[in-house]
Amino acid sequence: MKYFTFFLILLLAGSCAGPAGEADSQVLKPSFDPDSLTEFAAQQYAKTLETLPDTNRIPRNAHPDGTWNLVKKGSWVSGFYPGVLWHLYALTGDEQWKTAGEAALLKLDSVQFFDYDHDIGFRIFNSFGSALRFTKDSSYVPVITDAGRTLKTRYRPVTGVIRSWDWHDQWQYPVIIDNMMNLELLFWAAKHTGDEEMRKIAVSHAEHTMEHHFRDDYSTYHVLDYDTLSGAVREKVTFQGYADSSMWARGQAWAIYGFTLTARETGREDFLKQAMGAADIFLTKLPEDGVPYWDFDAPGIPNEPKDASAAAIAASALLELSQLVEGSDDQIRYRNAAVALLNALATPEYLARLPQQGILLHSTGHKPGNSEIDEHIIYADYYFLEALLRLKDLQKQTE
Ligand code: GLY
Question: How far is residue 95 from each of residues 62, 91, 99, 189, 382, measured CA to CA in Å?
């Protein structure tokens, strides 16, 4: 009952709380009140702080009974829990989240040197990077620059790209579309170390991905295997998607986000066009309720699990994309698409309620691997909060 009262307040507040001062009636107003949604998210994670066992393990996904599945710091998701806490600090200004964020960073001791996969950006930039962004405390800088140096070691000039994984025997040099997300760390580390090589690697990775990872309609392949001698692409396949030829929802969201950040960092039109292409096909193919199924081509649609994480990642990316594109039509189009995704997520269908932990239900981690299907997964919360913060900033700018 309490939950539904809360939800009513969220809706009522949202319906009369559009971006103040925005004369343009074409701008879609959120159906929720961002402040009430922030309060709800903080309540959910306050419960996590209260109930989390005293351990170095890190929340990854939540069981329906309200307990978290905890993982080691080497997991690709280990940066998201600290990142969620730091985003709550940025959204609320409440010191308890800063204290909790600092404590969570201690769980990532030495992770900046873990070099066995490409996920160094996810682990370090979303955790320490968020801490630095929201506190400006320069003591976080060395960890992040060390992480950039580690990521750099995974690049081979012959392929022109950063290797994603080391443990799949069927591939020589696998590179997944998700890897675009790690470029943010490299661009940042290049600026802070003066190491121009890092920037060149990030640009080379994006150029090769743009050339090989996309189909003509701007949908993406999940995995490309490069030949370590010639640098040629050996095959284009999937690991987490439905089929080699399908559009895996989260992979496509990573592509939108990755090319948007690369366009921001380079100012290049071709990267911006790629981000727009990736976004347009994602948006065109969304189902009626606005939240993608785990794969846009999954054979059992509409009886397939959703992936709320893909919606949250795309929403956050689209808010940034709306600020990079020229022309008010595209600016409004991408901003409205982001708000529509958030509106779809900020509903009783997708919001968790205690004893469920976290914020967003209905994400799918790895359907073909029969893992994390239709669950609450922490990276959905991270990008949802990032999107909420970006939306609030955008609203402030246009007030
Ligand atoms: N980067 C792994 C995933 O998106 O599942």
Answer: 25, 11, 6, 28, 19
Regarding the beta carbon of 178 and ligand 1, being less than 6 Å apart is answered yes
Considering the candidates 178, 225, 307, 381, report the single residue annotated as catalytic: 178
List the one residue out of 361, 366, 359 whose CA is nearest residue 294. 366
Q: Enter the DSSP assignment of 59.
A: E
Domain 5-398 in CATH 1.50.10.10? The answer is: yes
324 in Cβ contact with 264 (< 8 Å): yes
In this prediction, residue 24 carries a pLDDT of: 60
Annotation says 119 is catalytic: yes
* Number of neighbours of residue 195 by Cβ within 10 angstroms: 17
Residue 123 near ligand 1, beta carbon < 6 Å? no
Residue 16 has pLDDT above 80, yes or no: no
Give residue 383 CA to ligand 1 midpoint distance, Å: 13
For the chain, what percent of residues have pLDDT higher than 90? Answer: 90
Name the percent of the chain lying above pLDDT 70. Answer: 94
**Ligand 1: which residue has its CA nearest to atom 1?**
178
3-state secondary structure of 137: coil
Is residue 361 within 8 Å of 352, Cβ to Cβ? yes
**Range name among 12-26, 73-87, 143-157 with the lowest pLDDT average:** 12-26
Q: How far is the CA of 251 from the centre of ligand 1 (A)?
A: 8
Rounded mean pLDDT of 310-329?
98
- Which H/E stretch holds residue 12? helix 2-15
Q: What number of helices (H) and strands (E) belong to the chain?
A: 14, 8
**Residue 23 pLDDT greater than 50, yes or no:** no
Per domain, the residue ranges of the chain are 5-398
CA–centroid distance, residue 365 to ligand 1 (Å): 7
CA distance 104 to 125: 14
178 is catalytic: yes
Res. 355 pLDDT band, cuts 50 70 90:
confident
Residue bearing the CA closest to ligand 1, atom 2: 178
pTM to 2 decimal places: 0.95
Among 250, 257, 295, the mutation site with the greatest number of ligand 1 atoms within 8 A of its Cβ is: 250
Cβ atoms 262, 253 nearer than 8 A: no
Mean pLDDT of all residues in 203-232 = 98
| Selection from 55, 58, 52, 92 nearest residue 73 by Cα | 58
pLDDT tens digits, residue range 37-47? 999 999 999 99
